[in-house]
Design goal:
- Helices cover about 35% and strands about 15% of the residues.
- With about 450 residues, the chain is an alpha/beta fold.
- The protein folds into two domains: about 80-335, Aspartate Aminotransferase, domain 2, CATH 3.40.640; about 340-425, Aspartate Aminotransferase, domain 1 (Alpha-Beta Complex).
- The strands form four sheets. Strands 4-12-11-10-7-5-6 form a seven-stranded mixed sheet. It has a four-stranded mixed sheet with strand order 1-2-3-15.
- A hairpin with a 2-residue loop joins strand 13 (about 365-370) and strand 14.
- The model is unreliable at about 1-15 (pLDDT under 50).
- It binds 4'-deoxy-4'-aminopyridoxal-5'-phosphate.
- 4'-deoxy-4'-aminopyridoxal-5'-phosphate (PMP) binds near residues 68, 131, 136, 259 and 261.
């Protein structure tokens, strides 16, 4: 996420009849300096449908941030609205802690229907507080209780949330209970090789740490990984490497936790991203799109692990009926309309087009992704030290300039990656071919303008 605060580009010089300037001014005067998206995107959304958001000033934007990947069906999809209205009109209670309800029963049935075979028939679900980070906490507690061990294996560049345990497991942490392992990546491969060789070396590193009695890494309670790192800069894990992680954890009795908070519900081209490799994890952490745009989070796990006591992971807001109804409708719609497959095909096409763009503009160092989770890493080729191996250094200020240029063209994109130098696209899975072209046109235009303004 960019932390530079640009001038509110979306606000025109015309008299501010909409009140958006005042709203933005009051926001920056009253809200925390820790606020994030609001800094880089000074807009005041008042209406939204599908890919489009309309600001209070009447401007329209194509939204490729999608609530940080939450809106699998875009804004206010009719099936989601209908599901929410049906609950409201039925007089059902909206808040029931973790009591059984027909709405929850239907959600769980639909969710279990989508789970990878091998987990579906032995799955248990724990509904959590309504954020991904709370489901991560639950997953860590679950495996620690089940194994009686403490340590955790996690990866460089990981992002699992902002609560204490999830933060420990994330790339910026400094906790001794977590052993940090190299996540394979082609562009900035820590071993300098990339490709299958880089992935092989990161797998060997992991294996060696676990088997070397003097590695200083005690037998861990679990391994947590993202099948595609999102906040880490859109880095898909190779399928072979995923299978290696599964085999080596299974052989050593280490539960494997797949954090599918961002990759789930069709985003990467399969319903769950672990399906690309055929890996069946012991635990899956789910949030974002499973709530159909409303807050919902859950951890789903193999019933062998279900040995934690009642109350082990409590919380008041674990029974959001509107979110469960919206989520069940979303899951069913994605499944019935094969939107995962569509995301895979359209994403591959968009990636190919963006690779063409990278060939034209040296400031686009790398283009990568899986399905409709796409990233462009902006670099500074002029700063290239020819004696230093590897790609040019990341260019966060260029990425932020591209984001601002996109916004001026009515396109909302996310920034991420280790150095905030990756422009990220997370459009809804309902994106049409025409909309995809409009997104790419605006992005290409924004990159061209930024290249002109940042000459090499
Ligand atoms: N895990 C992953 C992979 C995520 O991308 C995120 C959020 N970006 C989280 C966990 C945390 O979710 P939340 O922000 O809802 O706590």
């Amino acid at each position: 996420m960019a932390v530079t605060e640009p001038a509110p580009a979306a606000v025109t010089a015309a008299p501010d009849r909409s009140g958006s300037e005042g709203i933005l001014r009051r926001q920056s005067a009253r809200e925390s300096s820790a606020r994030t998206y609001a800094r880089a995107l000074p807009i005041v959304p008042v209406r939204a449908r599908g890919l489009t958001i309309e600001g209070a000033d009447g401007r329209r934007y194509l939204d490729c941030l999608s609530g940080a990947g939450t809106l699998a069906l875009g804004h206010n999809h009719p099936v989601v609205l209908e599901a929410i209205r049906a609950v409201l009109d039925s007089g059902a209670p909206l808040h029931v802690l973790d009591l059984a309800t027909p709405v929850k029963d239907a959600f769980t049935t639909e969710l279990f229907r989508t789970l990878p075979a091998g987990l579906a028939d032995r799955a248990r679900i724990q509904f959590c507080g309504p954020a991904g980070t709370d489901a991560v906490e639950a997953a860590l507690k679950l495996v620690r209780t089940a194994t009686g061990r403490e340590g955790l294996l996690a990866f460089t560049g990981a992002y699992h949330g902002m609560t204490a345990g999830a933060l420990e497991a994330s790339g910026g942490a400094r906790d001794v209970r977590v052993t940090r392992l190299p996540y394979p990546q082609d562009y900035r491969c820590p071993f300098g090789t990339g490709g299958t060789r880089g992935a092989e070396l990161s797998a060997r590193w992991t294996e060696n740490l676990l088997d070397d009695p003097k590695s200083g890494v005690p037998h861990p309670a679990g391994m947590i990984l993202e099948p595609v790192q999102g906040e880490g800069g859109v880095i898909p894990a190779p399928d072979d490497w995923m299978r290696r992680m599964r085999t080596l954890t299974a052989a050593r009795g280490i539960p494997l936790i797949a954090d599918e908070v961002q990759t789930g519900v069709g985003r990467t081209g399969t319903f769950w991203a672990v399906e690309h490799s055929g890996v069946v994890p012991d635990v899956m952490v789910l949030s974002k799109a499973i709530g159909g745009s409303l807050p919902l989070a859950a951890v789903v796990y193999h019933d062998d692990l279900d040995v934690w006591p009642p109350g082990a992971h409590a919380g008041t807001f674990r029974g959001n009926q509107l979110a469960m109804a919206a989520g069940a409708a979303t899951l069913a719609h994605v499944r019935e309309n094969r939107l995962a497959e569509r995301a895979g095909l359209l994403g591959a096409r968009m990636l190919a087009q963006l690779q063409g763009l990278a060939a034209e503009h040296p400031c686009v160092g790398d283009v990568r992704g899986r399905g409709l989770m796409i990233g462009l890493e902006l670099v500074d080729p002029a700063a290239e030290d020819l004696t230093a191996p590897g790609p040019p250094p990341p260019a966060p200020e260029v990425a932020a300039a591209v984001q601002r240029a996109c916004l001026r063209r009515g396109l909302i994109v996310e920034l991420g990656g280790r150095h905030s130098s990756v422009v990220r696209l997370l459009p809804p899975l309902t994106l049409t071919d025409e909309q995809a072209s409009a997104v790419l046109d605006r992005l290409a235009d924004a990159i061209a303008e930024t290249s002109r303004d940042h000459p090499l």
